[in-house]
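Hypothesis: this fold can be encoded by more than one sequence.
Test: take the structure tokens below, design a sequence, compare later.
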């Protein structure tokens, strides 16, 4: 065993948390200002306005001070009323999971569920909306990370908008890694965070909230206030002239500031391109090694996480352990229904660089070989390099 469990890995290629950019790590060590210091109030407003630019919003986003599960649950608690009929779209573990929150706030839950290696067909959404005109809210996970698949949220959002419904989008592991923004998909609450493709720690949620969603939440007597789950309490907290509901995460705001600077300076299109190239090189390499992707088709394979199907007879947990112990490379397991069936190789933020595809293929293939399942690692590396070199 070259790398013990208590030793830091050499490379973390997971679907999150991801290693932060070095500039973000340095920003985290900045002075922790008092939250009502005028310098911090001005800084906080500047960072939120920067996030507004990155998210391409017409109004400042809400920053909640906790990782994005906070934002997802807060969206359910704030937008859904007991009378609302909710349509939840489940193409994976996280999409399915939102339905449990929705059911907590309304007994009227409908669901479209597909196998967890497929994506939601917009036609099925259109059919459901036609069959159930009473549907008020639709929820969808853009990139269901435990499956490495993406849903066509722009098409789904257009249908929901035409229906007059409200759309909640989980874009936690897609925003900043691919071309997705709240207005593009007609989202009423668009949930993302800093800890995935932006390459910062998993400590902040960013919400894009539409005007009509604000109106609906304010009319909902059960929407949380004076609570960690409150969105309403933070509506105006971005402004240096307004108070915070409670102490914000000062150090994490320093990190978000640096992450947004990097994203905007590199150029979003360039950031998306290197995520996509890294994923493509990884997929081609896996196929050249005789391995199968989890996603049912290339069209729905995520550019921020590649899910590779575990070969028959291989213990997936031992596979990841071998990759870590032998090579110092960490991958993610599946979750829930995908646990043991696939391994997730993350391409997010600082590890969305094509050379990491080579590292991933080497560690994954080497670990398989150590377990007696030999694959042609060299062919995989050659295929990945061919993809990378074709883009040079």
């Amino acid at each position: 065993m070259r790398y013990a469990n208590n030793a830091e890995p050499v490379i973390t290629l997971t679907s999150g948390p991801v290693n932060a950019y070095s500039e973000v790590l340095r920003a985290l060590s900045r002075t922790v200002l008092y939250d009502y210091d005028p310098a911090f109030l001005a800084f906080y407003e500047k960072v939120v306005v920067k996030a507004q630019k990155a998210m391409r919003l017409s109004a400042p986003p809400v920053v909640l001070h906790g990782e994005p599960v906070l934002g997802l649950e807060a969206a359910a608690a704030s937008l859904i009323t007991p009378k609302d009929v909710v349509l939840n779209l489940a193409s994976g573990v996280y999409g399915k999971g939102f339905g449990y929150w929705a059911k907590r706030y309304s007994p009227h839950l409908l669901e479209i569920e597909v196998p967890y290696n497929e994506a939601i067909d917009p036609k099925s959404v259109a059919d459901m909306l036609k069959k159930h005109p009473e549907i008020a809210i639709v929820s969808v996970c853009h990139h269901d990370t435990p499956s490495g698949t993406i849903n066509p949220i722009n098409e789904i959002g257009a249908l929901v908008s035409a229906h007059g419904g409200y759309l909640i989008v989980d874009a936690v592991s897609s925003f900043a890694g691919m071309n997705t923004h709240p207005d593009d998909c007609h989202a009423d609450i668009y949930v993302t965070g800093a800890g995935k493709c932006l390459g910062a720690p998993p400590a902040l949620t960013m919400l894009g909230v539409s005007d009509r969603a604000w109106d609906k939440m304010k009319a909902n007597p059960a929407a949380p206030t004076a609570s960690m789950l409150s969105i309403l309490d933070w509506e105006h907290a971005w402004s240096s002239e307004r108070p915070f509901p409670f102490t914000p995460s000062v150090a994490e705001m320093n990190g978000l500031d640096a992450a947004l600077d990097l994203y905007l300076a590199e150029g979003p299109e360039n950031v998306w391109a290197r995520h996509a190239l890294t994923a493509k090189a990884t997929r081609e390499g896996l196929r050249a090694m005789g391995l199968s992707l989890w996603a049912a088709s290339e069209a729905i394979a995520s550019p921020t996480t590649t899910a590779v199907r575990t070969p028959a007879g291989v213990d997936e947990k031992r596979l990841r352990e071998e990759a870590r112990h032998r090579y110092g490379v960490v991958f993610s397991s599946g979750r829930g229904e995908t646990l043991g069936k696939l391994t997730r190789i993350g391409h997010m933020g600082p590890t969305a660089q094509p050379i990491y595809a080579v590292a991933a293929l080497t560690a994954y293939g080497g670990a398989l070989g150590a377990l007696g399942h030999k694959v042609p690692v060299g062919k995989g590396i050659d295929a990945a390099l061919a993809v990378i070199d074709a883009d040079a």
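The two ends are 37 Å apart (CA to CA). The mean pLDDT is 97.
Hypothesis status: open.
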